[in-house]
Amino acid sequence: MATDHAPLPTYTAARGSVLPASLTPTLIKRLAERVVAAVDAARVGTNAPYTGEPLADLPVSTPVDVEDAYARARIAQKSWAATSLSQRKKILLRFHDLVLARQEEALDLMQAENGKTRRDALLEVVDIAITSRYYARNAARYLEPKRRRGAIPLLTHTTELRHPKGVVAVVSPWNYPLSMAAGDAIAALMAGNAVVQKPDTQTALTALWSLDLMHEAGLPAAVWQMVVGRGSSIGGALMDNADYMMFTGSTASGRKIASDAGRRLIGASLELGGKNAMIVLDDADIDRAADGAVAACFPSAGQLCVSIERLYVAESIRDRFVDAFVARTKQLKIGAAYDYSIDVGSLTTPAQLQTVTAHVDDAVAKGATVLAGGKARPDLGPWFYEPTILADVTPDMTLHEHETFGPVVSIYSYRSIDEAIAQANATPYGLNASVWSGNGARGRAVAARVHAGTVNVNEAFAAAWGSIDAPMGGMGDSGLGRRHGADGILKYTEPQTIAHQRIQGFTPPASISPETWATLLTGALKVLKAVGVR
Ligand code: NAD
């Protein structure tokens, strides 16, 4: 059933500049000047999603600019790797303080470039503070030399060292422009690497803002640099010079990056797409779960890699849950405002609006029922789309299995937990999931059966994402490698084992026959096992 609203007028013109006062032309120009590019570089413009108005005019980097950035980074990395961990820690903690102190500027920038609400933007500020504090305070325990059990007890002195990879390439997307840009660079920098980063052009100003602050915090020049351009133009130079690739984006791009990294035999961490599921168990608190579903499906207008697009509800509570969820969704305030008054912001680009519209229209044409939303809102701005809940979604509809990356969720019901888990796992993706239950242990047991890198119990995504001491990332088509925790920093290092053999090694001394040596050696192994050596 399609919506019963009359067609809305097409959004036509920008309504005068509505950029907040903090985003002065001077600031925007200063940030744009941080892009590594020639003085006479070609330019690329971006538009503010709230109005479609021109926002930034950025220089475009060429492959030669990328190579120059790497050349400078290689020199800078040598001295950066020689700085003490405590010096790096001080810089990161200063960065933490600067981000919090200047948060209003960051929030304005994120909203202007991405079209998200201030509340969604605030989560990115919080995330960067958590990430910089965590790696500043914990890097030493991951990176400092570690004694390891030697080959021969007491005689082999074995140490594991962690060297930086060198120069790490970071490719970050437009949907979480601060979290994804600075968040992935922080751990690489803390581990002693230099970083050459390509933030998505649409949200490059936010990324450049974080670079600006990191330099103000004391990071030496050239240790972290940014280039701007299309993947098809500078992606090759970025990959060919990198010692490690950290990529966030679509699964299709991730496959190409993985194959290029394979050709070069460098490591890559890939944070890719998802089709995340929420399971509401029959004992869930319906009001809490309905609030949770709103929080799970519509942050950043659904342009969040860990947001929920499939909702499985126990049949016995389906109607009550749907009523509660639909009522809350219909009350959401959609719009553009540089304050905390809005619940759902704009999509970021015309391409996103096109995908969302195409997915919903296809589903409706094939028989899906629109329970809430279901249409674009050109009266609010060029790329707004209503938070949308669909029922009666069938496998022949595109959005049944393909990621929409917008404010659209499909509701299904199930009869048994086995059926719920089978449906939730019927996807090649495996990024994030959410399980709701009145019984924590039951919720956690179901969570462990879901094929996803993070599963939140009685929370949408923030509990797992914010648990920065634990790994975060995707299974299956959702990626390779993890950010956060030990994995999130150790991946940026090259482990090296130094084993110093003292007095006697594995070669028999001249005074002992090979037969006696064999008896002694195997006897020693039996003793080691008997005394409980691991
Ligand atoms: P995309 O893959 O088309 O582009 C992402 C970025 O990568 C762009 O800036 C692009 O220029 C760059 N890029 C693409 N190919 C490249 C190459 N070969 N070399 C260098 N750079 C290259 O993705 P998109 O459609 O813009 O972003 C949305 C997708 O990203 C969704 O599928 C979403 O799920 C995913 N995503 C995942 C996470 C996560 O953490 N798992 C986070 C955000 C977005």
From TrEMBL:
Active-site residues from the entry: E271
Keyword annotations from UniProtKB, A to Z: Oxidoreductase
Keyword Transmembrane helix belongs to the record: no
Entries under Gene3D superfamilies matching the protein: Aldehyde Dehydrogenase, Chain A, domain 1, Aldehyde Dehydrogenase, Chain A, domain 2
Enzyme class name: oxidoreductase
EC numbers for this chain: 1.2.1.79
Ranges for domain Aldehyde dehydrogenase: 44-498
One Gene Ontology term of the molecular function aspect: succinate-semialdehyde dehydrogenase (NADP+) activity
Similarity comment: Belongs to the aldehyde dehydrogenase family.
Protein name per UniProt: Succinic semialdehyde dehydrogenase
Species this chain originates from: Streptomyces sp. 900105245
